[in-house]
Design brief:
By secondary structure, the protein is mainly alpha-helical. It has one domain (11-43). 63% of the residues lie in helices and 0% in strands.
């Protein structure tokens, strides 16, 4: 994956360790936003 629901891609980092951390955070953030949207629609 690279493209998210928001239409924004995470910053490209050369450092693999930093890249992995950013990807993990980005993935969790995307999932959180998805969840919030679904909850909002359910109300």
């Amino acid at each position: 994956y690279g493209e998210t629901l928001l239409g924004v891609t995470p910053p490209q980092l050369e450092d693999k360790k930093a890249r992995k951390i950013v990807d993990e955070v980005w993935f969790r953030l995307t999932k959180l936003i998805e969840y919030v949207r679904q909850e909002a629609e359910a109300l």
